[in-house]
Q: What sequence folds into this?
């Protein structure tokens, strides 16, 4: 039963994508129906499975031998976290896309790749060994490429090429690391209760493998200096930027690193290797530099992209602390950053769609035309700064706790300074939107506007709910921590 | 049952703000404001009575493991909640007339009510996280008062206000995390029992002091205050100066309680540090106030100076440990008094501004004929702030003076100087209020007065409420001390009341000292006006803003250099790579006998899908064999 459910969750989107690819461009209703149903079903299955594994405590596994390798799917709290974020936010992004893409001529192509990516993302989340994960990870690059270059302009194509180049180079590092790991462990690549490398002698080889993995996954996680593709990939249509470049793709990189650190190597081995400090320094630089560069960006989506780079580094910071509290912070930040950042992208997309303004300096007075949109943007950006009562505070709180408990107090200072920097680049956007004078006096708000606004508002409310009731996430977070740390 | 009252204090204002959306006219909005403030005031009075009868009230939501929202009302919370509700109420009456002359009234009223709820929440919160929730809400919503005019000046002030407010919030976040890591409960109203990590605990206390200090206008982080308070519409200024900065004072008092008022010596430097910063705040505030020509800015600098008094009181209490009762009670009492007279002064200046459209003191004058009632009530408030016997300021200043004298008796040089400067600041305060009242209401009338905009019923009533309360406090100090201040002092953790309840406020020496101060103040005013001392402009490089600008300039300098370097380097690398690549391609083409083989198809500038599939396979294979090869070595 579980097996069928897992496969359904992954495959239903792929089948839906095929269906959409077959039906003609004009049958919009049918297409939207297919997209919504498949996404809702897979999200519902993921939620159901989450409840199942958290209540029973056993993590189902599916294995299919494949020569000396094997396909392996695994349901564990860490994977579920990523799967949950992706599948749930995909539903919102789909509804948003119905509005955003309503005037587009190539919706068939767009939505088929959109659905395909959803299935592949779940595949990454439920992968049970590095081999399976690597395959899905590569597939994600190819499935999302058409979405990035969807507009077909010269700029879009160039950005797409950049995206592919970065991703492939990154993936080749992962492959190399995979091969080496395979040799070291004698053929075991499985994630399980114990890290893959548990008990294998630590050596320079192990460190080499580790850094190759970090380099590889670091590309998608946009760790500086491997971040170059992310800001240019913002030429994609907004729902794509929102979902792929704030939620699915970048989180795939982050998730890969979390898997490497916790499921492959394990905290105790890494502590022995003593690689923590160099990693913490790299991500701390990314946090600060991302924010500092974001301040200078005038194109709203690019500013958001650099903010994403900075915020993803928060998650990695928590992961590299190798401490339960740090991991809790990382998991919470993965959840909360996704839900917050997607709202910011949604709002930016609504503004661009309704007023054709894409630069921060043009936004003066737009808030009076689109009060709810910019209101959500303002509120959520406060959450990104880490202000209460929004959810962003709680992940930061755990990251700070973790940094103190690992004895690295400078990280406390860096996180607080970065919070202030976030304020510097987020707050002027909202303020100028509500105080300046707009050149246009009216926007026509059609049905597509409602479709875009509703998911934005729901997710904003969600940010407030999590801010006041952070304990709702506790079972999941406890599950992940319990998986890797014996408390 | 009683806990529901404390919820009313927070929820009714929030609800009122939502209901405002249904109102149509300014009048309806104003009635809504008055109604909600009245309910809040009533609830806070009942709350205080309930605390008097039944002791500390606690309410908390279900805990979901990480934290819970909760309220805890002891005498200190109830007192702060009570006087802020009172000032809010009278301001709401004032707004009935005032807001007819403002634009965008709906948003102002909405933020007026939300901020009321948030401020009440700060005072009633049961743990630091709940406090922080309301603290952040208050920062953001009151920010909209500051930028209400939406012109260049108010936006600039607003940014300063908001960014420093956020910085304060972040510092408190840091403190919360440090406290938690040091094994301290985050409950408000308890002293810390032995922390497990002393360094963390001390850093936490420093962050708390600076964080709340920003809100309290502590030098050198006071810069937002004189910018933000004058540009807000008058009701906003009155509340910012009257109540909102008291949230900082309240936080500092609770911080003092957290370190047990220095009893266990947990943070040995805390007392001296707070006293020194407080004295600097007090002196600098009054000096800068003397130099101001703008009435509202003068009042704002006085807020800095008066907050200095409160901070000194808190610091003295920490220095004196068990005997610090006068410091704490003085700080609490002065918070209450300052809320009353400073908001009354702002409201008065606002009435004058409505009629004359002028805030520059040197262009006003002779207004007592047109504004007799405003004049009298502002005079009462000015008497209050200068500490004239018979009014409220005298009482709290006496308490603070008692405290500081006791500290000075230990012979510590810092404390002795603190006491001397304390007296000197009184002189400066008197001089600048002689200036404010004198230049506004006496002399020749210099400015045009608009018709029909005089002292309306509502404007007068708002000020009268505050004046009456000030007079009651001034003439019946012992009653107020017994009823409010002494229990609040106990609630703040200072259990030994000493002879606070038997103190004779009107003893000869105190009155004599105060009168000497007043006379000296008059003399200073006369000298200052003659010598044009009050027009002195301190050089720009001395200001904190200049320091901030210098830091920003340094950063930009470094940043430009660094990014140039980076761009040059990356451009060179890219160019080199491109050259190498094309040479490789040329070489390949020469080697490829057939010509036009796969190498001529692969081109990164126009990558098609076939090419990238080929490339993946190629790269993967190369790396695979490379990996195997390396392994054998």
A:
């Amino acid at each position: 039963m579980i097996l069928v459910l897992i496969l359904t969750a992954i495959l239903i989107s792929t089948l839906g994508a095929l269906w959409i690819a077959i039906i003609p461009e004009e049958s919009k209703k049918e297409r939207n129906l297919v997209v919504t149903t498949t996404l809702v079903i897979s999200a519902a299955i993921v939620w159901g499975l989450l409840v199942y594994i958290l209540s029973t405590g056993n993590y189902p596994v599916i294995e299919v031998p494949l020569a000396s390798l094997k396909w392996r799917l695994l349901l564990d709290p860490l994977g579920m976290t990523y799967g949950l974020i992706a599948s749930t936010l995909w539903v919102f992004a789909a509804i948003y896309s119905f509005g955003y893409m309503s005037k587009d001529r190539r919706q068939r192509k767009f939505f088929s790749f959109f659905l395909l990516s959803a299935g592949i993302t779940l595949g990454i989340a439920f992968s049970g060994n590095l081999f399976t994960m690597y395959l899905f990870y590569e597939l994600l690059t190819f499935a999302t490429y058409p979405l990035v270059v969807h507009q077909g302009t010269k700029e879009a194509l160039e950005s797409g090429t950049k995206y592919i180049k970065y991703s492939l180079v990154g993936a080749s590092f992962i492959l190399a690391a995979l091969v080496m790991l395979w040799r070291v462990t004698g053929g075991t690549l499985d994630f399980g209760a114990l890290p893959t490398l548990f008990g294998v002698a630590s050596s320079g080889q192990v460190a080499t493998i580790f850094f190759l993995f970090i380099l590889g996954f670091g590309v998608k996680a946009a760790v500086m200096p491997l971040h170059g593709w992310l800001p240019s990939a913002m030429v994609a249509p907004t729902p794509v930027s929102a979902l792929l470049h704030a939620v699915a793709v970048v989180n795939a990189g982050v998730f890969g690193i979390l898997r490497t650190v916790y499921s492959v190597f394990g905290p105790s081995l890494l502590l022995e290797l003593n690689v923590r400090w160099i990693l913490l320094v790299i991500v701390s630089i990314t946090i600060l530099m991302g924010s500092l560069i974001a301040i200078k960006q005038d194109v709203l989506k690019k500013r958001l992209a650099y903010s994403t780079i900075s915020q993803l580094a928060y998650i990695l910071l928590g992961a590299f602390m190798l401490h339960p509290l740090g991991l809790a912070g990382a998991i919470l930040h993965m959840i909360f950053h996704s839900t917050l950042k997607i709202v910011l992208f949604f709002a930016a997309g609504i503004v661009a769609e309704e007023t054709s303004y894409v630069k921060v300096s043009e936004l003066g007075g737009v808030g009076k035309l689109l009060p709810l949109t910019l209101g959500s943007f303002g509120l959520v950006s406060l959450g990104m700064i880490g202000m209460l009562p929004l959810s962003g505070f709680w992940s930061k709180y755990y990251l700070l706790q973790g940094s103190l408990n690992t004895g690295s107090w400078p990280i406390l200072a860096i996180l607080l300074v970065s919070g202030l920097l976030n304020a510097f680049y987020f707050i002027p956007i909202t303020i100028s939107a509500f105080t300046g004078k707009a050149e246009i006096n009216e926007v026509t708000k059609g049905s597509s506007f409602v479709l875009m606004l509703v998911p934005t508002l729901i997710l904003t409310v969600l940010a407030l709910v999590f801010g006041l009731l952070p304990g709702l996430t506790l079972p999941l977070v406890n599950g992940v921590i319990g998986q890797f740390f014996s408390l | 049952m009683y806990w529901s009252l404390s919820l009313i204090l927070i929820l009714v204002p929030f609800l009122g703000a939502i209901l405002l959306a249904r109102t149509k006219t300014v009048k309806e909005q104003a009635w809504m404001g008055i109604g909600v403030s009245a309910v809040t005031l009533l609830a806070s009075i009942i709350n205080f009575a309930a605390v008097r009868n039944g002791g500390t009230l606690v309410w908390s939501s279900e805990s979901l493991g990480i934290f819970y929202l909760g309220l805890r009302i002891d005498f200190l919370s109830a007192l702060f909640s009570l006087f802020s509700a009172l000032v809010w109420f009278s301001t709401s009456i004032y707004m009935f007339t005032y807001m007819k002359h403002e634009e965008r009234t709906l948003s102002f009223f909405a933020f007026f009510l939300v901020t009321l709820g948030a401020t009440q929440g700060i005072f009633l919160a049961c743990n630091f996280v709940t406090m922080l929730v309301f603290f952040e809400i208050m920062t953001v919503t009151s920010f909209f008062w500051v930028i209400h005019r939406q012109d260049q000046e108010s936006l600039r002030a607003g940014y300063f206000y908001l960014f420093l407010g956020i910085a304060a919030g972040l510092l408190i976040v840091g403190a919360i995390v440090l406290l938690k890591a040091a094994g301290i409960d985050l409950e408000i109203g308890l002293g810390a029992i032995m922390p497990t990590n002393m360094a963390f605990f001390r850093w936490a206390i420093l962050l708390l002091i600076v964080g709340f200090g920003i809100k309290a206008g502590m030098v050198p982080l006071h810069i937002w205050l004189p910018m933000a308070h004058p540009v807000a519409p008058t009701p906003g200024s009155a509340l910012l100066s009257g109540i909102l900065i008291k949230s900082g004072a309240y936080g500092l008092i609770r911080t003092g309680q957290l370190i047990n008022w220095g009893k266990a010596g947990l943070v040995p430097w805390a007392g001296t540090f707070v006293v020194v910063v407080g004295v600097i705040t007090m002196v600098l505030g009054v000096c800068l106030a003397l130099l101001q020509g703008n009435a509202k800015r003068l009042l704002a600098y006085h807020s800095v100076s008066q907050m200095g008094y409160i901070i000194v009181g808190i610091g003295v209490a920490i220095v004196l440990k068990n005997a610090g009762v006068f410091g704490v009670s003085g700080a609490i009492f002065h918070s209450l008094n300052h809320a009353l007279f400073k908001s009354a002064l702002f409201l008065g200046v606002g009435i004058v501004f409505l009629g004359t459209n002028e805030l520059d003191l040197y262009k006003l004058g002779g207004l007592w004929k047109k504004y007799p009632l405003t004049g009298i009530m502002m005079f009462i408030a000015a008497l209050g702030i200068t500490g004239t016997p018979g009014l409220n300021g005298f009482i709290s200043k006496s308490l603070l003076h008692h405290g500081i004298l006791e500290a000075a008796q230990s012979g510590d040089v810092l404390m002795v100087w603190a006491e001397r400067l304390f007296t000197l600041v009184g002189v400066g305060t008197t001089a600048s209020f002689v200036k404010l009242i004198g230049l506004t209401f006496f002399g020749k009338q210099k400015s045009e007065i608009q018709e029909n905009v005089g002292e309306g019923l509502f404007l007068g009533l708002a000020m009268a409420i505050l004046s009456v309360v000030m007079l009651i406090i001034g003439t019946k100090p012992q009653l107020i001390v017994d009823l409010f201040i002494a229990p609040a002092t106990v609630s703040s953790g200072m259990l030994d009341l000493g002879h606070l309840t038997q103190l004779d406020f009107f003893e000869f020496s105190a009155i004599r000292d105060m009168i000497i101060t007043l006379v000296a103040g008059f003399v200073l005013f006369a000298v200052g006006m003659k010598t044009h001392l009050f027009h002195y402009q301190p050089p720009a490089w001395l200001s904190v803003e200049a320091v901030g600008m210098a830091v920003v300039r340094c950063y930009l300098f470094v940043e430009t250099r660094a990014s140039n370097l980076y761009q040059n380097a990356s451009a060179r690398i890219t160019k080199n790579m491109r050259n190498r690549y094309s040479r490789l391609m040329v070489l390949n083409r020469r080697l490829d006998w057939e010509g036009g083989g796969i190498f001529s198809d692969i081109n990164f500038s126009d990558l098609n899908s076939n090419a990238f599939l080929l490339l993946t396979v190629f790269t993967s294979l190369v790396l695979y064999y490379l990996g195997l090869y390396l392994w054998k070595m």
